[in-house]
Amino acid sequence: MQNISILGCGWLGLPLAETLIDKHYNVKGSTTQTEKLPVLDAVGIDAFLVNITSESINTEFLNADILIILITSKDHEAFKRLIKFIEISSIKKVIFISSTSVYPNTNAVVTESSPNSDSPLVGIEELFRQNTAFETTIIRFGGLFGYQRKPGNFIRAHNTIPNPEGFINLIHQDDCIQILIGIIEKNIWNQTFNACADSHPKRADFYTKEMAKVGRLHPILDPDSDNVYKIVSPKKLISALNYTFKYSNLMDY
After folding, report:
1. Which of 17, 45, 77, 245 is deepest in the core (most CB within 10 A)?
2. CA distance 149 to 67
3. What is the model's pTM?
4. Chain centroid offset of residue 154 CA
């Protein structure tokens, strides 16, 4: 059975680790907070304190077959240093979690071959993509939601929905986990995938519905918005994994 290290056992990394453990993978997980170590230990994760801004990374944490990077840092130099540690470790496969924010708003459908914005994530993706010491698959997740992350709470400023005529690109935690497991089990490497639900309702319709669920009724649709947007296509991912989203129709969520 493969050994998997998860860099960042937070909102997504912790339940991912628990699912992998249930599938009998050996899982190491990291946190930057000492008080969270017992939380990881309690569910069977071999827990480590890891901060990529440090001058060194615990070599035992990197003693694994696969590394899943689930942190939100955009520190280019820290990732360069992390990669040097990966190069001298046993890790041969990496999943790097990126974001659909790398695409500019073009008021059109975007795919993995669409132009990127001037985003720090693009440069960090390239660090992994160009490295030949290990194989990397990059997953560009849409907006994350599910369980305690309720979309009805995403809109805060003055209860006003900006870009109401735009479209959403979201993905549920459950789908994120199954996609990551699918990449591992199908052994799909050296690829870049968009990952978001394959439905894209208008922001006005979706957020009005979701805000009502948390008791926030009658939101204002910003009349002065430019209504800029992008529609992120997950077709490449669906084809590669033969994947069916658990939460496909976001208006039924």
Report:
1. 17
2. 25
3. 0.97
4. 17
